[in-house]
Specification:
Layout (H helix, E strand, L loop, with lengths): L2 H19 L29
Length: 50
């Protein structure tokens, strides 16, 4: 899987976690995301079909 797709999956997981943990009356605005590539990823993330 491409590194960009892995970053998108990490961003999605973080957003879902934040959405369910922030109070309903509160707002949050993501400011940015920084990735540091330590080495080439060799694993894959599989999403099962619906």
């Amino acid at each position: 899987m491409h590194t960009v797709a892995m970053c998108n999956m990490a961003e999605l997981a973080g957003r879902i976690m934040t959405d369910v943990s922030v109070a309903v009356k509160s707002r949050w605005l993501p400011v940015g995301m920084t990735m540091e590539y330590l080495k080439k990823a060799t694993n894959t993330i599989a999403i099962p079909p619906h």
